[in-house]
């Protein structure tokens, strides 16, 4: 047997398929042995009584994503964001290269490669396309070929929204160049109209954020993008599904064989719209889009996870401070909900919340937990079989968990640079005690074990789940 550099000894190893008590041998950053009583290695990690899981893959997080011309500035850098990811058991992130209307996309991608050189965990990028002019669409083939294998489109937000013709143009370009597509699906005009009416009536506090964008605007846009995906035979993932209505649309698309995938996030599984209804401006902490819903939606999301309709739970980490002049209060504490930047931080709390609310409360089992946090995102975004599970030949990306640790979430103990967490005071059971990326302990004994820059870019080649089916709704193949 090849000499082992590290052995994780005696843990309960969990994958999306199995649970087994065994040792994991690591050499050259890769898992090279699984078995009982492996020979001693230079570095020994005692995992007796602990769970050993695939390192989390967070396939939707906003890190250092600047909004051009805006006073809103993200609190996290790649260093702080990915450090907090690692402390929460996440070993790879897929974040975004933003795109600004009227600009080329390639310089932004280059800039994000520069910024991400401070990453602590491995990373990849979704390409945001907000302005699909012929020139911008022509930039996509070389960017995709360089390993940026997924594109994000928005159906809402003034600065980023595409109309249907533009969405179709992006879907077509993705199909022609073997890229996957992700989408923020909400009906923009309906939200804008509701917002104007609410504001005219003086209804501007945080709870009206949820009223301005009810489930039906998500359902409609989800239905519409699924129609476009079906028309072009282009696989896609609907980001941050929040409600029973959107789940129903996705379930129906999947039932007729479409490659329509879905993601939700811990905030939609643990918080309701009641979190918006707080004294003073506090409710702004829970403003995210799509909006928080009701308990019945939370129940529907867990059911969709159990059924496999929702296959991925990401954080949608949006690191906007609550205080100061560049965050939630940038337009003052009397500002309308529509002026408050969207999103909640969550890179570090994603896995503990899911473990506690999901596994410990019996809503999902350990295999489903490994699947939705690591294996499925790895497969859906082309990181598998390098990442996403624990098997010989894979990168030794591993999270070691104390499944019995109980902790009250406190922002002061998190490692992001954001000044709040929407989960303050929530008690959870289960917390990661170590995280290894390519066999190196990036977090162990409560400390970061690597310098910024340890993380590597993960270029992604074409992979099975992104391939079109070759089935069109008519006898005409528009790509022939
Ligand atoms: N909504 C988004 O679309 N992005 C970031 C966070 C959020 O709430
Ligand atoms: Zn979004
Ligand atoms: Zn997002």
Automatic annotation (TrEMBL):
Keywords: Hydrolase, Metal-binding. InterPro entries: Amidohydro-rel, Hydantoinase/dihydroPyrase, Metal-dep_hydrolase_composite, Metal_Hydrolase, Metallo-dep_Hydrolases_sf. One of its GO terms (molecular function) is dihydropyrimidinase activity. Its cofactor is Zn(2+). Signal peptide: none annotated. Its EC number is 3.5.2.2. Residues 51-442 form the Amidohydrolase-related domain. It comes from the Bacteria. PANTHER family: COLLAPSIN RESPONSE MEDIATOR PROTEIN, HYDRANTOINASE/DIHYDROPYRIMIDINASE FAMILY MEMBER. Belongs to the metallo-dependent hydrolases superfamily. Hydantoinase/dihydropyrimidinase family. NCBIfam families: D-hydantoinase, PRK13404.1. This is Dihydropyrimidinase. It comes from Neoroseomonas terrae.
